[in-house]
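[job 4417] fold queue: 2 targets
>>> target A
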Amino acid sequence: MTMHFRTGFIVLGAAITAAVPLISSLCDAQASTKQKESTATNAVRPFRVNFPQKALDDLRRRIAATRWPDRETVPDRSQGAQLAPLQSLVNYWGTQYDWRKAEAKLNALPQFMTTIDGLDIHFIHVRSRHQNALPVIITMVGQALCSSCSRSSVH
């Protein structure tokens, strides 16, 4: 695995992680329509990411309005994430990150939705190009990428 591939994979992972609220908002809207179509079955259906511009604008406004805590009292990470690097990262996400490029990268992958135990599950299905590769399932802990349409994430 080359360093370029690792960096790209990490950036894509970061984009996915940062996009969770946006994907959740989108899933809520799409799932309400799709749920009516597939409530009788747990069919696997195609999915495409489409970050609503309104949600991106809201995210940028909220990032710009962040109220930061005082700087940590120790020079190391023993108190958690250090303020300066975190502020730099958040500034990047709020002012420079290209959400449309991330959207295009995600949509270049075969994405799907299915319903399991009443919850819409978003997944990417990519087969390995290696004949004897073991399957890998990567899951996220915490808020699911798509909720079950019982709430609206866009305000």
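>>> target B
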Amino acid sequence: MLARAFWSWRAWLARCRRHPWAVRRWARHESEFNRLLAHRSTAIRDFFVIQVGACDGVMADPLHDWIKRANWRGILVEPQALEFERLKATYAQERHRLVFENVAIADMDGTCTLYRLDDAARTDDWERGRASLLPPYDAHRFIAETVPCITFDSLLRRHDVTRVDLLQIDAEGYDFEILKRVDFATLRPALIRYEHRHLRPKDKHACRKFLKRAGYRVLEMEFDTGAVLSSSETVGIASRAASGER
């Protein structure tokens, strides 16, 4: 029953993607988000990013070129051991301005179960990125591994982070759970981008409402959603960033 519901939902999404109006709207939103990102990257002297689910730093990664060319600082988080080693190799020349964390972001500090697609079950190279804290609907294709985990707050405390310019999340369906655990009373990233592709429809809608209540304008793209903090708050954060506060 669950599998039938999942594939019905995927079929409905596929039909929506073929609609020209939706395609134009997604493209417009992505262009606007990238424009705002470029503006902030240029305006902020010490741009700081946290990327949750960085994989190898290359595959389907919207931040790769930015990190390489724009001199960003930040924390890159990847729970899969092999992809984590590839991630460090990808950014070997940028290691002086990046921190690498081989952990999952969860609701506790300690260990948790990560469901990773079995190598033998992969049909394409991009499926290396299929790993989530959520039990998969096609569990027979996945391997359950125990990995270290920390909360988002613990990650911030570990590295004394008080300002984030961009929070990027690609957690294969666990994205909303991570966002719900961000304390927006103390930390308000100027920009957020998360993958909504694997969220259940009700969670996709709830996540947008959650961010709007937190003071963000939401820009839905084809596979991701961008969130932009209101202009008045962004100005205040930018002024603190200019003074070197992180």
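[job 4417] complete. Note on B: The radius of gyration is 18 Å.
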